[in-house]
Amino acid sequence: MILPSKKISGLLIITAFLFCATTSAFGLSYNTLYMEDPSGNLYTLDNTTGAASLVGDIGFQLVTDIAFGGTTLYGITLGSSTTYGAFIEINPDTAEGTFKSDLGFIDMNALVVAADGTIYAAGNDSGNFITIDPNTGDTSKIGNYSIAGGGGSSGDLAFGDDGKLYASVWKVGQTEDIDFLATIDLVTGKATEIGAIGYANVYGLGFKDGWLYGATSTGNLLTIDTGSGAGTIVGSNTVAQWGMATSPVPEPATLILTLTGLGMIGLARIRKRFQK
User: Fold this and answer.
1) Shortest CA distance to 121 belongs to which of 37, 41, 64?
2) What ranges do the domains of the chain cover?
3) Which of 27, 213, 220, 264 ranks highest by number of CB atoms within 10 Å?
4) Residue 14's pLDDT is what?
């Protein structure tokens, strides 16, 4: 039986709709900005409006940052004068967090996973730049941001499509309370300033569709120019944003399998209607 063109078009629309629903309402939202607040809540962010949608409670307080390694979501927490921060794993579907290990540092507030699986983190006051073993949680210091005059990590790290590692940093002695965009040397940990973002407390960074986004603790969502460092507000919410990460883009094989399966379901339903 040959299906009419209108039926085929309808099938494609239905399949696309079902795919979007399957990768959001019923599991990990692919190619999506995720964000967490200091109370331990996990959200997804609309990159066009800044609107935040609650996923759930991580179960840990003072989660300073999150980062995706494939579909695995990692997080770090802030330590204190008597305890180290923690390295945790977070279920992106439910937000449930699981303790993995102590970090051995108290001020880690930036986290990112490289394409090769290496996990990097950076410290707020210290400016220390470290790696974290994803299996054991063991840490190793690479170096320091070494910002002239003093400074450290404002709150996040993000790899661009160009392979560069970008960071939001703060500097001592600024006349205005603003953060700066910098690149980080993976061998030495040294930060090289690009320019002023123009906003304070840019605690979250994440690339999506070629754009670098920044999240501030006052609820603003920014786009950041990687050439000049300048930030522009694109939206806002009422959440105290403490960290951000972008979920992975689905692999072609995943798309094909999902769309094929959903397409077969839709085709079977249409055939049943014709038989009736």
Assistant:
1) 64
2) 1-23+257-276, 33-249
3) 213
4) 47
Among 128, 133, 145, 67, residue whose Cα is nearest residue 102:
133
pLDDT at 173: 83
Choices 3.40.50.360, 1.10.10.60, 1.20.1250.20, 2.120.10.30: CATH for 33-249: 2.120.10.30
- pLDDT of res. 250: 85
Contacts with 189 (C-beta within 8 Å, 6 or more apart), sequence order: 122, 128, 129, 142, 143, 144, 145, 146
Residue ranges of the chain whose pLDDT lies below 50: 1-25, 254-259, 262, 267, 274
pLDDT at residue 177, as a whole number: 82
Q: pTM for the complete prediction?
A: 0.84
- The single residue listed with the structure tokens 């992106």 is 92
Q: What DSSP letter does each residue of 126-161 carry, written as one string?
A: T-EEEEE-TTT--EEEEEE---TTSEEEEEEEEE-T
Taking the C-alpha atoms of residue 208 and residue 195, their distance in angstroms, rounded to an integer, is 21
Q: Would you call 221 exposed, middle or buried from its count of C-beta atoms within 10 A (0-12, 13-18, 19+)?
A: buried
CB-based burial, 14-35: b 16+ in 10 Å, e otherwise: bbeebbeeebeeeebbbebbbb
- In 3D space, the residue among 215, 107, 98 whose CA is nearest the CA of residue 168 turns out to be 215
Tokens of 82: 């008597």
d(CA 4, CA 80): 66
Q: What is the DSSP letter of 83?
A: S
